[in-house]
Design a protein that fits this description.
Elements (H helix, E strand, L loop, with lengths): L11 H31 L6 H30 L6 H34 L1 H7 L2 H18 L9 E4 L6 E4 L14
Antiparallel strand pairs: 1-2
Length: 183
């Protein structure tokens, strides 16, 4: 069982299991999403408007595999954060943007598929390249905006002693708490 200082307490075996699992997920995430991107860019028949949502999701997941997982693994190996306070702020922001964008892109992709199935004639007439680009741009802008409050004094990104990641912490009284991601 993890001690008071999280998984880096006395439970060495648990820490090694966590490092092994995270490392495996990291490698599979990077490999899988790289394959998705390569298939999309090498095969013109895959370049439909609906697949652009999957590409946006693959990019989010690839950043997660190249940035978030390695930072978490490094913090677990070292049992302390190697990041400065500024880098922790930036890392927390990147993590929040990527996680939020993954969720919002999944919602947009689901709605896109819903329209294809339930209203195919409307979809062909309505969904253009510009609209797809507008929707994807909106998902990224929304994700970036939603992750800005810590830079405006609402909450703060700090190293979580349990998860060993730079996470959003609430430094406000309960009556003023920030609700977190709202879709």
């Amino acid at each position: 069982m993890a001690g008071a200082d999280g998984i880096c307490g006395e439970d060495y075996a648990g820490r090694m299991v966590a490092i092994t699992i995270l490392s495996s997920v990291c490698v599979l995430t990077v490999f899988g999403n790289t394959m998705v991107l390569l298939a999309f860019f090498r095969n013109r028949s895959l370049r439909s408007f609906g697949n652009y949502f999957l590409i946006s999701l693959a990019i989010s997941d690839l950043v997660m595999g190249c940035w978030t997982f390695p930072n978490t693994i490094a913090n677990l190996v070292l049992c302390k954060s190697w990041m400065s306070a500024l880098l922790c702020q930036m890392s927390g922001y990147i993590d929040n943007v990527i996680l939020t964008n993954s969720l919002v892109t999944l919602a947009a992709c689901s709605y896109d598929r819903y329209l294809v199935i339930t209203r195919p004639l409307f979809y062909k007439r309505c969904m253009t390249g510009k609209r797809t680009l507008l929707i994807l741009s909106a998902t990224w802008i929304y994700s970036m905006s939603l992750s800005l409050p810590p830079f405006c004094g609402i909450g703060q990104f700090r190293l979580s002693e349990f998860s060993r990641t730079c996470a959003l912490t609430n430094n406000l009284p309960d009556s003023q708490s920030f609700p977190g991601p709202v879709l």
